[in-house]
Each structure stands twice: as C-alpha cells, then as structure tokens.
Amino acid sequence: MSIEQIEQAIEGLPASERDALESRLFARRFGLDALSEAERTELLTSLDEAERDIDEERTYNGDQLRQAVRSWLGK
Q1: Residue 66 belongs to what domain range?
Q2: What stretch of H or E contains 6?
Q3: d(CA 21, CA 23)
Q4: pLDDT at 75
Q5: Quick one: DSSP state of residue 74?
Q6: Are 43 and 65 contained in the same domain?
Q7: One domain, residues 40 and 70
Q8: How many structural domains does the chain have?
Q9: Among the ranges given (11-15, 17-21, 62-66, 71-75), the one the predictor scored with the smallest mean pLDDT
Q10: Are 57 and 25 spatial neighbours (Cβ–Cβ below 8 Å)?
Q11: 49 burial class (0-12, 13-18, 19+ CB within 10 angstroms)?
Q12: Whether 62 and 29 share a structural domain
C-alpha cells in the first residue's frame, strides 16, 4: 500500500477515528515507548516528584517554579 493510498483511506475515516489514529501515531513516535528504559524511569520519577509537590500544596514564585520544573525534568 502506498502513502497516497493510506492518506486517502485516512481521509475516508470518520473524524473520531481519524483523531484516534492520530493519537496512536503520536504515542508511537513521542510516547513512553519512544524512551529508553532509563529515560522512562527518570521521567516517571520526576512526574512523581511534581505530583508530590502538588499534593503537598507547595507554592512557588516565578524563579522557584522554573527551578522546580527543571528538577522535575531531570535537568
């Protein structure tokens, strides 16, 4: 099947199915599956840290927030 045929088939899908297909393709390209095991672990750990901060109702000024986001992202 050619790319043109695939594009034509996609155009024939209902909008909800096109949206679902787009989501699946993005997830394959950019989702957790695109990360190495170490990257995935680091990301999930940093998200857990961010969630703890939210749950503990920590507040930040602008500079503190930038630093917190950097730490959540592992930078």
Answers
A1: 36-75
A2: helix 3-11
A3: 5
A4: 63
A5: T
A6: yes
A7: yes
A8: 2
A9: 71-75
A10: no
A11: middle
A12: no
pLDDT in tens, 22-55: 888 887 777 777 778 888 888 888 888 888 888 8
* 74 shares a domain with 41: yes
**Interacting residues of 13 by C-beta distance below 8 A, sequence separation 6+:** 21
Residue with tokens 């730490």: 71
40 and 27 within one domain: no
Task: State in Å, rounded, how far the first CA of the chain is from the last one.
Answer: 43
> What is the DSSP secondary structure assignment for residue 31, as one 8-state letter?
S
What is the pTM (predicted TM-score) of this model? Answer: 0.44
The first and second tokens of residue 46, run together, are 């940093």
Residue for token digits 């961010």?
A: 50
Asked if 28 and 52 sit in the same domain, the reply is no
Please state the length of the chain: 75
**Co-location of 2 and 12 in the same domain:** yes
Rounded CA separation 9/3 (Å): 10
